[in-house]
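anyone seen this seq b4? input:
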Amino acid sequence: MSSAPAPRPGLHGDTLIVADVGGTYARLALADVSAGQPPRISALRRYACAEFPSLAAILAGFSATLATPPSTAVVAIAGLLEGDHLVNTNLPWDVSVDATRRDAQLATLELINDFEAVAYAIPHVAPDTLVAMNGDTRGDGRWPALVLGPGTGLGGALRFEAGSRAVLASEAGHAALGAGTALELQVLAQMLQRWEHVDNERILSGSGLMNLYPSLCAIRGVTPRWSSPEALIAAAHAGDDALAVETLEVFCGWLGSLAGDLAVTFGARSVYLAGGISSHVARFLDDGHFRTRFLAKGVMRRVLEQVPVWRVEHGELGVIGAAVWYAEHRRAAA
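predicted toks r here
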């Protein structure tokens, strides 16, 4: 999604502002883009979205820290662009593309889906930031690659090796949540009492953890103790709260099931698990619950056993991907 047909170079050649804006934090940086080279990222800063009245205020605040700010920005942001308006349920403010460009004093502003940006970054991920979780991970990247990640919401995209459209963005987080165990059916039944449509990110996201945990407490007849994802995750890591541990085990298993569903649906030859929550629950993702449910696809198990799955330990994929998107679209428009 973008505010113009194709990106244009900023006033300073191939130096531009890149941003990764989620429901909680926005990461902004400068990107130097050269043909045939990975983007060079510098001046990285993080902003709490709730502390600013608009996306434009964050962009303007970042520009104010620069001696000579570029006039071009590419922003990877959670949501779907409809005309000038961004559809998003997790941001603390509305986003108008034209108003944001004007108020941030930019000549060109491009908005792309946040997980579209993550998918663009995948070919540039350093091997030492990848943790193997399944399959034969010794070879080069296999395409198409499914990129999936829980954060404030749940993002997903498909990365192809080449072609005029290298990335297929999606709103997988808003597709209906499917249950695959008796316990998950009980949780889903509770969710359906609250919402007519229960989508994937009602459970498989940071906020979703705080739907899953009280549901499991109700099923087990236990009074909830934790009121934030951070406290819940800390308790699970400490290991002294059985319900906190079970919540993360169920969460990771359910996420593995969705990843397997999407890999089968799209014929993905590899899977990259990103997102802020993934790094916080890494120990639980690696303990087998994710992989067990990823493979539990009947006759497709043999196929999925060969699909390499990596957990990506890199926190800046969005800003890198925004720069790669700019470079690839500028080259295509040249």
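The domain at 15-121+316-333 is CATH 3.30.420.40 (Nucleotidyltransferase; domain 5). Confidence is low (pLDDT under 50) at residues 2-13. kinda curious what u guys think
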